[in-house]
Amino acid sequence: VEKNQLLVIMAHPDDAELSCYGTICKYVDEGVFCSLVIATKGENVIRKDKTPLDRLNETQKAFHKTKIDISCLNIKDGNIVHDLNLMRVLKKIIQEINPTTIISHYPDEFGYEHQDHTALGKAVISCAFRYCKNLRMLLLAEPLFRGFTSFRGNHFVNVSNYYDDKKLAIKKHKSQYNKHYTNVKFLKNRLVGFSPYINSFRISNNKYEIFESIYTID
Ligand SMILES: [Zn+2]
Q1: Helix, strand, coil % (nearest 5) of the chain?
Q2: pTM for this structure?
Q3: Residue 171: which H helix or E strand, with range?
Q4: How far apart are CA 166 and CA 168, in angstroms?
Q5: What pLDDT, in 10s, does the model give residues 4-37?
Q6: Which residues hold their Cβ within 5 A of ligand 1, which is an ion?
Q7: pLDDT digits 0-9 by tens, 144-171
Q8: 17 C-alpha to ligand 1 centroid (Å)
Q9: Strand-by-strand arrangement of the 208-216 sheet
């Protein structure tokens, strides 16, 4: 039996907390080994009294309870390019970790999302199909903003049990200005019934992280 292994690849230090913190916790609680790879230190948006390293430490603090493995590729923030270099780096990581599930960004085709998210998402999809020997699930996280996105959620993870921890994890990112998407009301709206896909979400008080799954074998 193949051991389950989760690989999460995100562009910036708070992306995993915002899009899939509860899902990661769920995997960890099921005994799945999880690795989080962050492409940049997110140095472009940072409080004046903090350093890029502080941002990475905030991620460490946010995931402290989970004991997951966290590493950074040290790509320049805002400059992620889906090219051969990035493909080589991702190939190496994928071959080392041999994940059964990968979570990354949804590459928004309208250009509504952060350019780093789109570039990284595309590179991860490409590498996942080329280099993953045991991939069962490729999950692309819901974009933060619902503008002209082509995202269509089809994989819903009930993270109600992890909601309080998720809030705390996001709060660890003190180096961020008070971005509205770190605000509790926004977060709750996003997780409860914000989805246009399943109406019953609005009736229950359950909180879901939503993904578009493009590869699933079960
Ligand atoms: Zn980001």
Answers
A1: 40, 20, 40
A2: 0.93
A3: helix 163-171
A4: 5
A5: 999 999 999 999 999 999 999 999 999 999 999 9
A6: 11-12, 15
A7: 877 678 888 889 999 999 999 999 999 9
A8: 10
A9: 69-75, 33-40, 5-10, 101-105, 137-141, 208-216, 155-158
